[in-house]
Structure formats: structure tokens, C-alpha cells
Amino acid sequence: MDAASLPSVDRAAYAGVHAKLDPATATISLPMDAYEATPDESMVITAANMYLIEDCMKNAGVTMPEKHGDLTVKADQSYGVWVPELAAKYGYDKPIIRIVSGIYDSQTRESGDVNVKKYFECDTATVSSQISPFRSRIAGEDSLLTNISNDSNALSERDPDWRESRDEWIACLKDAGISMRQDSPDAWVPSYPSDKQGEIRTAVQDANCKQETKVMQRISDIRAQYQSALIAANQAAMNKLADDKTEALAKARTILRQHGKGAA
């Protein structure tokens, strides 16, 4: 992203804002999370939309194709491994931390061509009634959530404190005999051996260096502060987005209750 296109932000005014890092769940909580759907909320929205499509298909006398499944939530490794216990078990693989149980199940296990064709027709026919997802990462969509996410990340990565904290982590790795990847010097995963035990040893040292230098808390705080500044600059629109999310979830839960899923 071109630096000239980024908004001017005074991060110092938000120095009291901090990210919440939870090693037990390998999650990083940031201010923008309040405006996006959690995995559990995403499951509620998805299930409600599936019931709208199912109603359309029932009205057409066509059986819903196979649609069901849980949602896996993996460790947040946006900046590489940072939980030593997970690194010791999985190396650089991204482990599943928890599973959100599926709500919708078509109760069918076959997907004939006629059923699939009608499914897509009903998906299109009900799109105006369906509930939009609340995510900052939707391909091709230039939304406020996307812009704030992209701008805050770009501003963070250009911040001198970001570079300083990253350099300290790299220095810690170097002292342990670990070098950064030559093909991707800006990556958050260093070079590591091809064998699994060598990978795990490197991953554990990597995570220990992240703890020793506090780099994860430092860069996450930087991201949180830029996010807060950009949220404040767009507060009226963000308040509307928060209201929209509340209304959307209420609508989704009403749809689920109407289809016998009152506990969702």
C-alpha cells in the first residue's frame, strides 16, 4: 500500500489502548473485533441464511442438497508462533484450538444435480433477505471494515516502534543461531530444518524469543492503537455498523427460533 494514500494518524493519543493476548486460546483481541462477527456469531448468521434457502427449496418441492458441518477455529498465527506449548507440540503447523458446533443440517447426504442447481437459484433468490457477514476480509469488497483493517495494518508496519520490536525478536533468534528466510525477509517465520524435530526446536525458540522480547504484545498494541484512532475518526459510521450487527444477529436468532433452533 502506498504510504501517501494512508490517513494521518496520531497513535500517541491512544497509548492507553492495549490488545489482549490469550495464550490459552492462542487469540489476539483488538478493538475492531467488536464490529466483526465472532466464529460463534458467524455460525448463527450462516445457519439462518441456510434456513432461508431451505424454505425457498421446500416451496419449490426440491430437497436441500447436503449442507452441514462444524467450524474449526485455529490459533491466531498472523505473526508466526508465539505460544511455546503449542510450538512444542505442532511446530509451525497451525493447530485447531476449538470447534464451533454446526447449527444447520439439511439432514440429507446426497447432492443431485437438480438439487444443487435449485440451491444456487434459491441462494440468488433469497440474497436480499439473507444476513450479510460482518468480516473485514471479503474478497473484492471495499467496506469501512476492510479499509480500517488494511489502513491500520499498513500504518502499524510503518511505525518505528514496530520495526524496533521486530528487530529485537530477530536479534534474539540470531543469538540462538536462527536466521530469517532469505526469500522472504519480512516474514514472521524464520528458516527452520526440514525434519519435524528440527522444526519444533526452532518453533519453540521462536516462541520463547517472542515472549522474551514481548514483541507480540508490542506489535499488537500498535495495531490496537491505530485501529482505535481510525474507529474514532469514523465513529458515527462505526456506531451504525455496531447497531447493524446487533440487529442482524437478532434477526438471525429469530429465524433460527422459527426453525426450532431456539437455543442458538
TrEMBL record:
Protein name: Uncharacterized protein
Organism: Paenarthrobacter aromaticivorans
